């Protein structure tokens, strides 16, 4: 039975969840909530609920995998069986493997891996609930978790998707928009140097639409970058006078 | 050329903190003549060097650091010691035995067995090889009794305090011997388990509130309170019958 | 073996000294549980969910209700399956990969408690005899391991089942399932609670913390239902319990399970 295609953008130009085309979903960060991990961040973006954690730098076993000149950054993107409408098997899928790779390639340039040769830095991204754009949220949260772990970074990495829905270019697609829309383009950015760390696209976009979506995604990234910094500062805010006593300790 | 950040201001990785004639100090890096923070922490500068006092970090060994470690393996060359760092450390046989002595593996475990705790110093470390420990020094060697607690290494300076003021307060207040390892492990030895438990409680509070003001006073008050509750024997006369 | 699994002798001695006074490393009494926090309804896409903190241990359970075929030996009953993942982010010793013997044992212990107590009335979940039933999936996600994953998972599983909602439905004459408006709770009729105990230096402790778990060589888990019947038991580890120990353990479990059930149902 075919249904008439649902309108994803109504007459007033608002999307299914009431957002305007260039509006982000509400975002929330909770930093350092896990006890065992070296760094951890829980993030919500709309209905996405993502838990990320970092272990490392730590000794790498088996030894033969170790790199002599830098740390090995490993990344695991994984989804909970209850994270989507129809229960998902927890076994690795081709999608999870691909996403683990592109996420790792986006995060690695940010990390000063050369400071910790022969170790591993393990990034775990667990999607507890998924509603479109979970790889972007996962990367954004993971980069904050790396900072929470005290691992030196060139910059925070931030990611956001833009795409096309009902003929219009929109920012931050949710699951319905991703499935029923015409294009979805996740992008990760190194804000400081304006470098693109991850770029994927599926769907169709004209040159003009692509440029519009591309710029919109970059703008979305910059907005989220500001939220990342605020979240870190809120967690670690310190009175200036008390910092005197903290000097003198040497860390990695 | 300007410093772009106020002293003691909180910075996050990627924040631009200085341009031009400055040197990139700890927890910062330089790119195209600009200096950026690489960790979350407080900005500071000394002479021409800008640096960031990290608020969160892990322990990276440096020569002469006093550390508390756990023996996790024994090889023919010596003991492998977990010092709460990204790299395990090595305590060579020659640190304990004369050079001509050729020990077998079971003789090594008689000296320090797996699970044994040591107070040691870092003799050498560069990133191309694992850190090397030495036991040559006053008070170094096997730890036979006491309680050991672990703390985030970045907060260790707070536990010690300016010129040792905080740690002295805790030592006097609980009557415990306290040895603070640079690697975040702290050894507490008291006359009674209650004294050790009090010291641990106080240390946990210092860790929790390391970044707040007035901590020294609050700790002083807490110690007074605990003395009354538990009857910590600081003098020779115990207060209550435990 | 990860270096974190090695307990220093000095720490072992410290624990023994405290036990002499019936105290534990973290100041607890022998039969005291760590603080428990239960939060439900966190995952909207799941039928039900619960996040439980037991001290620093954190477990998230999601329940999914889908349709499927019944087991051949129970054609008129819905199906129940429990799966556990020891997520690598929960502990430095957990590695990514398929469930290992520990996560399988964990899932099966929780399963036993839920199944044998008939917590879910599976007969109510039959759609078409022998052909189609509702399948209840309980997925246990360990998020932070600080000891006693069994009890935390069991509490979270029951809390998630209580929190679960399934769509109202009718079964048409031809056996077709039709969902109607509104939701209903799962057909729950019992609330099993697991209590895990171990012996150190001859004394029974409940709710072992991670450090205590590294010392013990055997643990005993006993689950009781709300009527006071024992519905599951599991001894784990290579050590032994005397016959007197086992009887004492059932007494401790009976007392503690009542306390814990109040906390779970109170939410």
* Helix/strand class of chain C: alpha+beta
Strand content of chain A: 25-35%
What proportion strand of chain C? 25-35%
Gyration radius of chain C (Cα, Å) is 20 Å
The major beta sheet of chain A can be summarized as: 5 strands, mixed
- What's the SSE pattern of chain C? HEEEEHEEHEEEEHEEH
CATH architecture of chain C: 2-Layer Sandwich
Fraction of residues of chain C in helices? 25-40%
Characterization of the model:
The complex is a heterotrimer of chains A (252), B (242) and C (267). Chain A is an alpha+beta fold. Chain A has helices spanning 94-107, 134-148, 175-180, 207-235, and strands spanning 27-31, 39-45, 48-59, 72-79, 119-129, 158-165, 168-171, 183-190, 195-199, 202-203. Chain A is built from 4 helices and 10 strands, in the order E-E-E-E-H-E-H-E-E-H-E-E-E-H. In chain A, helix 1 (94-107) packs across helix 2 (134-148) and helix 2 packs parallel to helix 4 (207-235). Residues 248-252 of chain A have low confidence and may be disordered. Chain B has 3 domains: 10-54, Beta Barrel (OB fold (Dihydrolipoamide Acetyltransferase, E2P)); 66-143, Beta Barrel (OB fold (Dihydrolipoamide Acetyltransferase, E2P)), CATH 2.40.50; 147-230, K Homology domain, type 1 (Ribosomal Protein S8, Chain: A, domain 1, 2-Layer Sandwich). Chain B has helices at 105-111, 156-160, 165-174, 193-208, 215-230, and strands spanning 10-11, 16-19, 23-24, 28-31, 34-37, 41-46, 49-54, 66-75, 78-82, 89-92, 117-126, 129-134, 141-143, 147-150, 177-180, 185-189. In chain B, helix 3 (165-174) runs parallel beside helix 5 and helix 4 (193-208) runs antiparallel to helix 5. Chain B contains 5 helices and 16 strands. The N and C termini of chain B lie far apart (65 Å). Chain B is flat. Chain C has helices at 9-20, 101-116, 149-163, 210-215, 243-266, and strands at 36-40, 48-54, 57-68, 79-86, 126-128, 132-144, 165-171, 177-185, 193-200, 203-206, 219-224, 230-236. In chain C, helix 2 (101-116) crosses helix 3. Chain C starts with 8 loop residues before the first helix and ends with a helix. Chains A and B meet through strand 3 and helix 4 of A and strand 6 and helix 2 of B.
């Amino acid at each position: 039975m075919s249904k008439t295609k649902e309108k994803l953008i109504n007459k007033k130009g608002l999307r299914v969840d009431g957002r305007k085309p260039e509006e982000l979903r509400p975002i929330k960060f909770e930093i350092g909530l896990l006890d065992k991990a070296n760094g951890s961040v829980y993030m919500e973006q709309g209905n996405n609920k993502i838990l990320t954690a970092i272990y490392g730098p730590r000794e790498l076993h088996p030894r033969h995998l170790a790199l002599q000149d830098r740390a090995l950054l490993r990344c695991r993107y994984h989804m909970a069986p209850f994270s989507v409408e129809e229960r998902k098997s927890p076994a690795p899928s081709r999608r999870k493997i691909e996403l683990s790779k592109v996420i790792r390639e986006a995060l690695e340039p940010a990390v000063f891996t050369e400071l910790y040769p022969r170790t591993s830095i393990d990034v775990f991204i667990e999607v507890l609930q998924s509603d479109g754009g979970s790889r972007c949220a996962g990367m954004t949260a993971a980069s904050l978790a790396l900072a929470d772990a005290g691992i030196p970074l060139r910059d925070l990495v931030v990611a956001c998707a833009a795409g096309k829905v009902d003929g219009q270019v929109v920012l931050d697609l949710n699951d319905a928009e991703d499935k029923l829309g015409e294009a979805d383009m996740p992008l990760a950015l190194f804000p400081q140097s304006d470098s693109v760390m991850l770029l994927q696209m599926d769907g169709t976009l004209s040159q003009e639409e692509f440029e519009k979506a591309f710029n919109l995604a970059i703008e979305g990234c910059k907005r989220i970058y500001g939220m990342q910094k605020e979240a870190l500062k809120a967690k670690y805010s310190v009175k200036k006078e008390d910092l005197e006593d903290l000097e003198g300790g040497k860390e990695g | 050329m300007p410093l772009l950040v106020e002293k003691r201001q909180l910075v996050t990785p990627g924040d631009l903190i200085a341009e031009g004639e400055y040197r990139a100090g700890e927890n910062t890096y330089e790119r195209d003549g600009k200096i950026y923070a690489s960790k979350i922490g407080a900005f500071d500068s000394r002479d021409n060097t800008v640096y960031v006092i990290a608020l969160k970090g892990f322990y990276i060994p440096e020569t002469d650091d006093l550390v508390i470690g756990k023996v996790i393996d024994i090889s023919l060359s010596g003991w492998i010691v977990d010092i709460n760092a990204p790299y395990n450390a090595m305590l060579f046989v020659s640190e304990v035995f004369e050079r001509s002595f050729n020990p077998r593996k079971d003789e090594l475990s008689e000296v320090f067995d797996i699970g044994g705790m040591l107070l040691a110093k870092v003799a050498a470390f560069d990133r191309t090889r694992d850190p090397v420990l030495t036991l040559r020094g006053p008070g170094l060697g096997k730890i036979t009794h006491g309680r050991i607690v672990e703390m985030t290494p970045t907060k260790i300076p707070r536990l010690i305090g300016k010129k040792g003021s905080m740690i002295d307060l805790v030592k006097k207040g609980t009557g415990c011997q306290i040895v603070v390892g640079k690697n975040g492990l702290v050894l507490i030895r008291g006359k009674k388990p209650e004294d050790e438990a009090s010291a641990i409680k106080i240390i946990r509070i210092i860790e929790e509130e390391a970044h707040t003001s007035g901590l020294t006073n609050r700790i002083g008050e807490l110690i007074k309170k605990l003395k009354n509750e538990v009857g910590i024997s600081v003098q020779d006369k115990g207060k209550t019958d435990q | 073996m990860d270096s974190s699994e090695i307990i220093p002798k000095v720490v072992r001695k410290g624990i023994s000294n405290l036990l002499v006074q019936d105290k534990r490393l973290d100041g607890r009494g022998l039969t005291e549980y760590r603080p428990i926090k239960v939060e439900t309804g966190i995952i909207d896409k799941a039928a039900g969910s619960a996040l439980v903190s037991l001290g620093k241990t954190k477990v998230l359970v999601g329940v999914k209700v889908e349709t499927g075929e019944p087991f051949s030996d129970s054609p008129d009953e819905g199906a129940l399956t429990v799966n556990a993942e020891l997520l690598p982010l929960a502990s430095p010793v957990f590695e990514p990969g398929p469930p290992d013997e520990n996560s399988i044992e964990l899932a099966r212990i929780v399963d036993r408690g839920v199944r044998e107590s008939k917590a879910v009335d599976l007969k109510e979940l039959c759609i078409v005899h022998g052909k189609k039933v509702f399948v209840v999936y309980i997925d246990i996600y360990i998020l932070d391991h600080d000891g006693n994953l069994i009890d935390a998972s069991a509490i979270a599983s029951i809390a998630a089942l209580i929190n679960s909602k399934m769509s109202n439905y009718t079964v048409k004459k031809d056996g077709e399932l039709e969902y109607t408006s509104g939701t209903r709770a799962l057909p729950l009729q019992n609330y099993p609670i697991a209590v895990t105990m171990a012996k150190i230096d001859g004394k029974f402790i409940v709710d072992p913390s991670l450090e205590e778990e590294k010392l013990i060589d055997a643990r005993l888990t006993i689950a009781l239902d709300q009527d006071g019947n024992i519905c599951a038991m599991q001894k784990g580890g290579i050590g032994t319990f005397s016959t007197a120990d086992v009887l004492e353990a059932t007494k401790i479990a009976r007392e503690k399970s009542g306390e814990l059930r109040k906390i779970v149902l109170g939410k």
